[in-house]
């Protein structure tokens, strides 16, 4: 569940960063800094004094956050500036579904 919610948040933040075409991809650069800080924060947390079960629950987030950071960096470097850019559509994107439908993972235009 933690990883799924992280995926929802990551997708929503990138969608938000790509909303305004007038800003180009400057918002991706800002979000990249945020994700980089998130990685540093979670590494610090895991290195700290945590109960074993909490550490096991939180440690996988490092992998997820590092991947998120790397993808955001690649999107920025490739000049992605819109939600319909192929390089963004080619990513696995996570969307919560309405009602009791669960969640949806999308890549390109498939579900």
TrEMBL record:
GO terms for cellular component: dynein complex. GO terms for molecular function: dynein intermediate chain binding; dynein light intermediate chain binding. Transmembrane segments: none annotated. InterPro entries: DHC. GO terms for biological process: microtubule-based movement. This is Uncharacterized protein.
